[in-house]
Write a structure and sequence with these properties.
Blueprint (H helix, E strand, L loop, with lengths): L1 E4 L10 E4 L9 E10 L2 H8 L17 E9 L11 E5 L9 E5 L3 E3 L6 H4 L3 H14 L6 E5 L6 H10 L3 E5 L5 H6 L3 E3 L5 H9 L5 E4 L5 H7 L7 E3 L3 H7 L12 H12 L7 E6 L3 H8 L7 E5 L1
Parallel strand pairs: 8-9, 8-11, 9-10, 11-12, 13-14
Antiparallel strand pairs: 1-2, 3-4, 3-6, 3-14, 4-5, 5-7
Length: 305
């Protein structure tokens, strides 16, 4: 089968699509024929070596956590899934950017009727991260919460989940994404010089919580705006979070099939929009990451094996 591999840390050019052995599922696993798999900024950072101290790679390394597809084999101890079932889920084995992947049955949930393969295959990491971020800062109807990277893969879901809790949400994003934010009940604010003052104007001078999905200065900005550190959560700027006592809750805070199933049902019912920016075939994985690493994507980029 074909799978993405890299044999050393480096830029996008170290990514290869290679012929590898098709995995054999263990007793508590199923083998999924992958129909769609999302890509993540964290995967680019792992590939470059930027997260070696936190999440080291062993070589040759695969890639990919998110996945959706059809079960083609079932392990001897698996109950509740059968060959032919359509599922979405995740793996922690860096393995979903491939034609087939062996997945623990507890990390899968049925694909709801009407949920596209692209959305199903890109929902877990962004969805679990957004869910965990919102839970961490706990916004309610009387709160105003700011979200940086509000049109990105995680941010676009976080703003919607915070709105579902009744909070007033201010989304930091470039002007081309302001219309989408307004359509989802979010107050858009442009990046750039004078940002703190624009947020104060949009919020009436009162910001209760801050979700940072982008990094680079937003924890300090939240503190400047008067947000208590325990109501600041960043998924990118761990060093500054430690300095101020802010939270760093991410995907692992909600990485389970129960949360994924809840998000999938919301998306299938049209109550949670998962924007899909573009899709690429597996053999264009380098192009997909060039696109992603521009850091201006609205929503998710998806590989289709």
């Amino acid at each position: 089968m074909k799978a993405v591999r890299f044999h050393e840390y480096g830029g996008i050019d170290v990514l290869r699509v290679e012929e590898v052995e098709r995995p054999v599922p263990g007793p508590d696993q199923v083998l999924v024929e992958v129909r769609a798999a999302g890509i993540q900024p964290g995967e680019a950072m792992i590939r470059s070596g930027g997260l070696h101290e936190r999440w080291p790679a062993t070589f040759p390394s695969g890639q990919g956590s998110d996945l959706a597809g059809v079960i083609v084999e079932v392990g001897s101890h698996v109950r509740g899934f059968a060959v032919g079932d359509e599922v979405l889920g995740f793996t922690h084995d860096r393995a979903s950017h491939a034609e087939f992947v062996a997945v623990d049955d507890v990390r899968l949930t049925p694909r709801p009727k009407g949920l596209s393969w692209e959305v199903a295959g890109s929902l877990h990491v962004a969805g679990a991260t957004a869910y965990a971020c919102v839970f961490a800062v706990d916004p309610g109807p009387s709160d105003t919460v700011v979200v940086s990277g509000a049109a990105g893969g995680v941010g676009s879901l976080a703003v919607q989940l915070a709105r579902r809790r009744g909070a007033t949400v201010i989304g930091l994003a470039g002007e081309p994404n302001h219309a989408w934010l307004k359509e989802h009940g979010v107050i858009p604010v442009e990046y750039g010089d004078g940002l703190a003052e624009r947020i104060r104007q949009a919020s009436g001078g009162n910001v209760d919580a801050f979700i940072d999905t982008f990094g680079t200065g937003y924890v300090e900005l939240a503190v400047e705006l008067g947000v208590r550190p325990e109501r600041i959560n960043t998924i990118r700027d761990w060093g500054t979070a430690a300095k101020f006592g802010a939270q760093t809750v991410g995907e692992s805070g909600a990485a389970c099939a129960v949360v994924l199933g809840e998000l999938a049902r919301l998306a299938a019912r049209g109550e949670l929009e998962v924007p899909i920016a573009r899709t690429y075939p597996l053999d264009r994985v380098q192009d997909a990451f060039r696109d992603l690493e521009q850091r201006h994507t609205h929503g998710k980029i998806v590989l289709r094996p």
